[in-house]
Amino acid sequence: MTQSLPITAQAWPRAVPPPRPVHMRVSLAFVEHRVNVWLRFGQPVRETTLDRWRRVATFAPGAVCCRVKWIGNDYGTALWQLMVLQAPMPFDGAQRIAGVAPSARILLRADGEPQVKAVLEVIDAIQALGIDPAAAAVTYWRTVGNRLAARQPPPGYTTERHAAHLARAVLR
Question: Is the pLDDT of residue 8 over 70?
């Protein structure tokens, strides 16, 4: 016959506390005629000025923002880049990106002047509808990125699509 041992609090493994949400920090900079890294849209919870040229915008988990990077040299534009980023939730997969700490989910990436200007036009069209681009559907930004990669025109964002996105969020 087996004898059972008394169950004590020490006999059970300790519960692992849930991870703390980590805020995404996006570095921004401006040096005239050389570097311009700015936010096109997104509402940071905090913005810290480091010095005359540098700032850091901090975003809560799940927040969406758009970072535009322009780098120039003596001969003109050296780099045009636009990224729509989402601050990851705990346990979400995320990518390491220079100037973004600790990581972010890349929803859309556009490289080069033609692609960046196409995405800026999409953002302007969304704002013309009276919709904050940061509140647009995450799947829409991924679709725009995929269309750009396939050299196809990006789809339009409509008020109906936005209403469906909001209704889906309520059902979750």
Answer: no
